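Record Sterol desaturase family protein, 327 aa.
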Amino acid sequence: MSDIGGEAARWNFHPGEVRNNPLFDWPPRPGAVLRWYSAYWLVISTTTLSLVVAALGIWLWAPTLVEAADLSWSWVVAIWLGFLIPHTLLAGGLHLWLYRARGQGIERKYDKRGQIANNGTFTFRDQVRDNMFWSLASGITFATFYTCLWFWAAGNGWAATTTFAAQPVWYVIWFAILPAWGSFHFYWVHRALHWPPLYKRAHALHHRNVNVGPWSGISMHPIEHAIYFSSLLIHFVVPTSPMHILFHVYTFTLHPICSHSGFDGLIALGRKRVQLGDFFHQLHHRYFECNYGTVEMPWDRWFGTFHDGSEGATTRTRAFKKQMYTK
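=>
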């Protein structure tokens, strides 16, 4: 167990020690692994939400691959709206409840400070408007571009596809692999985005948000969006389906809304009902040179940039940052 010590005093709510996915622990701990995956596949989570919304998309608005073979504004706009509307409803709903209505006050809020207004650091001098603009105008646009490109390529036979009927085992396993692939991809592109020239040109826009909110999740510069959503390019190489790529996009758009909400959980009837925030990533926004990846894979632990929420980790991170910027 980490020594949280004085680090807890720096936060309004500190959830305790941050842990990685036990899948990579040695010796193996199968019980812990089962509990870990149950915590987001068998409950209401952004993973199950992404799966449900993707299924609704296939049913209601996504084109068939036969239809997608011919580029048409009708199905391109349908895909764009299919990303825009859920994003706006989830981010807007959480923002209204947690920040405007203050529905649970600061209970389980990591940082007690609110969103910033009348500050020239942000586009429109307002953190929320800044985040909304970059998330919707750039983020949803890039998500739509990559997705439509795949649908068009798959419809013309230029990208490998599969179906549940053809490969039922692979079809199901692919859903479990995609979050791990996303974690792998995110760690390495995120490290690249902290390279000073690229950080200054692109990633600094996302890091305006030291104290994040629901709209901060994919509030990024267009260059960063192009890099971030390049995770979807794997679907051009590995046999996949429309359901898989929609699930992938929703995990990359809806999950960041919750992980950047600033609150550990949603409270209803006096109890935490839904996991929201990601303290692992909240630590990255505050301390900057740590926790580049996600808790799904231990890249930060392997490369010495893991912050587990303890006072000792804060000391190490500050020393690492000072060393980096004095070279």
